[in-house]
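2024-03-11 09:14:02 INFO worker-7 job=invfold-0412 stage=load source=structure_tokens
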């Protein structure tokens, strides 16, 4: 059976230490307490110094994925988890002798498939880089006889550190309205970072890892207007969505783009809000996790997890 549940886990310690990159990111911050409360010993990496913990079940190391050399603290192979940049993680694996039996679990992005055929050169190049990194991780794992699972996800929220919902909500709170292009109703499936963290925990602890590339979009398909209405409902008083006629907005954008970066890149982001970015959500079942519907609370936009 292709389903993994945490209760399938081997006795504590059998899988060795979990080494986690992206531990300070949206998913990583939910993952660390889950790993610790499951009895998994964790080595977490950050480029910034982190406060030492009082117990030895979590050790912080200050390191950059681009230069760190890996050591295995115990004889057991353990897990390598990346909830940070996948291309740097692929580089790390390629310069590391990975013990046979190691479990590799990492986040990727559904942009790898959504943007693959994009007319926008920036987006198509991003999809190409993501797909190349995924293939490098899979190849390295196979060559090392490690088990490997790559989790493609979409619009992540829940830790207050995302670059879309949280900043726009803040802006709307300040302006009391959220200006939005009237016809920009592309479909999305927001996914909560805590649900992705639960998937990673189950993947690390279960006996049978669903290997290969897995797709984990959120369970609800919503257009941007519905998403913003639910996000803005978490503010009091609740700002409204102000629908701007698209031609007027386009004129403003073209003016901004002529001013150069960062506006030129942001235009590509705006183009995408007219497009659907959806995927089948059946892979959640393989990890024994039921993702939550998109019913955000104000806590989901506060950057104080963990
Ligand atoms: N954000 C989204 O909505 C979204 C959507 C789909 C997929 N994803 C995927 O999720 C993963 C994480 O994305 P993200 O948006 O949260 O942010 P990110 O900027 O890719 O990663 C942030 C995390 O990675 C760590 N990190 C970044 N560069 C590092 C380096 N050179 N060495 C060591 N650690 C490094 C950061 O730790 P420190 O700063 O503490 O060093 C932080 O914990 C990526 O694989 C991305 O493709 C994200």
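2024-03-11 09:14:09 INFO worker-7 stage=emit residues=306
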């Amino acid at each position: 059976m292709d389903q993994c549940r945490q209760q399938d886990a081997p006795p504590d310690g059998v899988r060795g230490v979990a080494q986690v990159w992206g531990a300070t990111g949206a998913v990583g911050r939910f993952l660390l307490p889950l790993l610790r409360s499951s009895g998994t010993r964790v080595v977490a990496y950050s480029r910034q110094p982190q406060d030492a913990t009082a117990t030895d079940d979590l050790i912080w190391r200050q390191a950059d994925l681009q230069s760190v050399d890996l050591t295995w603290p115990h004889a057991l192979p353990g897990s390598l988890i990346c909830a940070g940049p996948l291309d740097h993680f692929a580089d790390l694996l390629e310069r590391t002798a990975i013990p046979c039996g190691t479990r590799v679990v990492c986040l990727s992005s559904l942009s790898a498939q959504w943007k693959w055929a994009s007319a926008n050169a920036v987006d198509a190049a991003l999809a190409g880089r993501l797909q190349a990194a995924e293939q490098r991780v899979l190849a390295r794992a196979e060559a090392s006889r490690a088990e490997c699972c790559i989790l493609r996800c979409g619009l992540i929220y829940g830790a207050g550190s995302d670059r879309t919902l949280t900043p726009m909500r803040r802006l709307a709170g300040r302006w009391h309205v959220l200006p939005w292009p009237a016809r920009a109703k592309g479909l999305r499936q927001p996914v909560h970072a805590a649900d992705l963290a639960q998937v990673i925990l189950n993947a690390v602890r279960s006996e049978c890892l669903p290997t290969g590339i897995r797709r984990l979009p959120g369970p609800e398909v919503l257009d941007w207007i519905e998403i913003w209405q639910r996000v803005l409902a978490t503010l009091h008083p609740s700002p409204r969505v102000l629908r701007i006629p698209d031609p007027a907005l386009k004129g403003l954008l073209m003016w901004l783009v002529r001013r150069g970066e960062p506006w030129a890149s942001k235009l590509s982001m705006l183009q995408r809000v007219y497009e659907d970015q959806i995927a089948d959500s059946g892979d959640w079942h393989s990890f024994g996790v039921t993702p939550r519907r998109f019913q955000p609370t104000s806590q989901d936009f506060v950057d104080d997890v963990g």
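2024-03-11 09:14:09 INFO worker-7 stage=report msg="Residues 21-26, 28, 45-48, 64-66, 83-86, 88, 107-109, 153-156, 162 surround NAP (CB under 6 Å)."
2024-03-11 09:14:10 INFO worker-7 job finished
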